[in-house]
Known about the structure:
Elements: H1 2-7, E1 27-32, E2 35-47, H2 49-52, H3 58-67, E3 74-84, E4 89-92, H4 112-118, E5 128-130, H5 136-139, E6 143-144, E7 147-148, E8 154-158, H6 159-167, H7 169-173, H8 177-190, E9 194-197, E10 202-204, E11 207-211, E12 220-226, E13 229-233, H9 241-244, H10 258-275, E14 278-280, E15 289-295, E16 298-303
The chain binds zinc ion.
Amino acid sequence: MAFVAATFGPTSAHAAAPLVKTQAPGFYRMMFGDFEVTALNDGVVAYPTAQVLPSATPEVIQATLSATGLKDPVGMSYNAFLINTGSKLVLIDTGTGGKLDDSPLFHGAGRLVANLRAAGYQPEQIDEVYITHVGPDHIGGLTLGNQRAFPNAVLRTSKAEMDAYLNSDKAREDKFWHPFRSNLFEPYIVAGRFRSFDQDMALVPGIRALATPGHTPGHTSFVIESKGQTLIVLGDLVLMGAMQFSDPTLSSPFDADPNAATAQRKRMLHLAADHDHWVAGAHLSFPGIGHVRFKHGQYSWKPVNYTIPQQ
Ligand SMILES: [Zn+2]
């Protein structure tokens, strides 16, 4: 006892206060058939629920959150997904790129590339970048300065999305967003590394685009298939998992067409629950991967179990 007192005496206060408010590197890896799937976190933003889902009454918000032990504002994860098919390395969405740092809400976001490196990959290795939709938190990471952040990648998004946000007269009049959006795509277009797609089609073997318009006009989900398993990358179809699984009809002013977004959300949740597909969501609590269940007339979310992939 005397030894302990001498070593850890009154001068020892190493654990007096939390010093660094960080987590382990934000990547989560799992095997999926022959593919490796890595969720990459870009940041966490604590949005007040009423701002994201004003269609929910304060009573419903309070009751739903407290049923799962959550308090408002709930931290919304910002996730991207890296798929290694064995022959192609595909990144779905690119995070904020730190370009929303002016907003105190988004301060500290933009960690996707650091987490990509922590997961053992370099930006130069990415073969393909797929964009679910032209939202600043999904395309912000496309560039570093005015250079391509993924210099060897082909960038793909739906033609409907490009037409809505980059090519239309209406988009050109949008003084705030248009330069931001177009500048991010431009380095890829100039380098001949941009391709749009205008139908549900295979982009590389095992990954296909699936149009799910509503949140934005050309919002796209990506369906990944390997060895009989299916994973649907939902993009922004579910913004707040804590609320919208129990009531998928809750819409958001962040949805360009709330009715269409709700219809697509219900369609995808039904599909995933019915076929026991894996699901990955851009704003579901990190890693944002899991299953959807339907019981007693209600959906629920079953997050993936933490694991270390086996050889
Ligand atoms: Zn988003």
